[in-house]
Amino acid sequence: MNIGYIRVSTLEQSSTRQLDNIHLDMKYEDKISGATKDRPQLNLCLQVLRKGDTLHVHSIDRLARSQRHLLELLEDLLSREITVHFHKESLIFNGQGDSPISMLLLQVIGAVAQFERTNMLERVTEGIAMTKIHGTKSGKPFGKQPLDMSRRPEAIDLCKLGNNISQIAKIMKLSRSSIYKLLR
User: Fold this and answer.
1) Which of 144, 140, 152, 138 is nearest to 181 (CA)?
2) Which residues pair with 4 in a beta bridge?
3) Helix or strand or coil: residue 93?
4) Of the N and C termini of the chain, which has fewer Cβ atoms inside 10 Å?
């Protein structure tokens, strides 16, 4: 049987470009990060695959984002005599005389996928740190972050002291419209 595995990282992403023109007997699709090993549809796909079947995957990074996980999956599939076809990279593994060059390419591409994921996580962490330094919660520019209603008592106290809306906004580093919302 020809069985396809498709993965996108978020619910909003479309999977239509993956394995679009490939004849498949069955198809399994996850909408979850590739860094997650426990993917329901992948687990189901791995259970369904039998000796002689071919697993079709659009690209190496759709199957796994860590090199270790990729090699574990491939080793398991090949030991069960299941062929694995990565279409984007034009790599086919069946465990019988697989080319050393193909295995090298698999490992290099797997390492690059893992490197990309690590870099992405590093950028996200840096972005979160910068938002904390700049005093925003959402990473949005000043004035665009969600209004923190827990600051309402502070606004009321400043108003009771005789400050006008503009003065309160300046003291609290909020927009005038935010002050009006806090004082409602």
Assistant:
1) 152
2) 27, 56
3) strand
4) C
Spans of the chain, pLDDT less than 50: none
Same domain (yes/no): 82, 159:
no
Instruction: Find the CATH number of the domain harbouring 41.
Output: 3.40.50.1390
Q: Given this model, what pLDDT does residue 170 score?
A: 92
Catalytic residue among 9, 59, 66, 175: 9
φ and ψ at residue 59, rounded to 5 degrees: -150, 160
Q: What is the pLDDT of residues 35-60, one digit of tens each?
A: 777 889 999 999 999 999 999 999 98
Inside any domain, residue 7: yes
Give me the pLDDT at residue 19, please: 86
Is 138 catalytic? The answer is no
**Is residue 91 classed as helix, strand or coil in its secondary structure?**
strand
Question: What is the CA angle 148-150-151, rounded to 5?
Answer: 80
Tell me which residue of 101, 36, 100 sits closest to 62, measured CA to CA.
Answer: 36
State the Cα angle at 148 between 146 and 153, rounded to 5°: 155
Q: What is the pLDDT of residue 103?
A: 79
pLDDT at 164: 93
